[in-house]
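fwd from M.: "can u put these together and see what the complex looks like"

so here's what she sent:
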Amino acid sequence: MMVLNIKELPQEKYLLSGNAACPGCPEALGLKYLGMALDDKVILVVPAGCSSVIQGLAPGSSFRFTTLNVPFASSDAVAAGLAAAKEVVGEDAVVIAWAGDGGTADIGMATLSGAAERNDNIIHVCVDNEAYMNTGIQRSSLTPYGAWTTTTWTGKKERKKELPLIMLAHKVPYVATASIAYPTDYIEKLRKAASIKGFKYIHLHAPCPVGWRFDPKYTVRVAKLAVETGMWILFEAFNGKVTISPFSRPYQNKERRKPVTEYLKLQERFRTMKPEDVKLIEKMIDDAWKTLLKFT
Amino acid sequence: MSDEVKQVLPLAKPMEGVSGKTGTWRVTKPVFHNDKCVKCRLCWLYCPESVIEIVDREDAFITINYDYCKGCGICSDVCPTKAIDLVPEGE
């Protein structure tokens, strides 16, 4: 894979300044890179979530993309309909369902799975900030083990749902994971997904300073540490065949990963963790790598 | 209901500053020092608010739009040469 040069990226603004995102918002970064990748040839379908808030108050909108705000569970069904209509009209645009982790893994799971099974010509981007941040930091099925939320006071006792693997099992043409700390990788993946016909799934890791309880200036640092400690694995898969992306490749080797505590200690949400919990997380990382490498 | 009821489409158009001048949210202010800048563009790339613009002038490589900068400080954290300082607002 050729890595993009920062100088080649467009300097146009796609997410306009003065939006309603919190300071240091990773989702704002995700939207900015989405524009850089696909210009404004994008139709966004947005279920309830932080992205509905970031748009700001009518009659203005901070999004330069054509956007449709839809009820929570329906995003992929609406996107599938739009994609079909787009084909009839002959319009050249990419339909993207842009949902958070709740809108993807919990409430939107049924329509997501349905659209994947029908192989509808859409991209689903899951912006994973690992809890329901917009409504006040409640746990979702993508909240990791041990993390504090307002509904898991002593740390979550369950594991994070392995959503990229679930989507891989749907045998869709393209599944990828990305991180806001590696924009060139993410942009490349978006462009690749846009060129493929059928259902595409991109899982974007987005550390939220408000919900994860860290200083907003560390958004990019935390996202980077997630990859460097092996907690978040960047990969892409064409028709079920997994390739580890260049930025994650060194961390296949366990010795080259940074200690996971470096990632955990930056975030207040892991403050209730005991040493045995950290051991468990280390084991989970090993298991995740082992499972994923079986698909390569 | 009369026939004269005006129909309004619930449409919003792209607009800068939908949440007002978000610069007033700032508690720390990023201050750019051109002499330390190595023109890597990382601050521009990672600014979530898109307030950093590359102007490539003799006196400044970038400009920061303080009307909308929320002062998150990502630019100063990603800068490899520490060319952007975070200064508490109001000093």
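replying to her w this: The interface with chain A takes residues 10-22, 25-26, 40-42, 44-46, 48-51, 53-54, 65, 67-68, 70-74, 76-78, 86 of chain B (CB under 8 Å).
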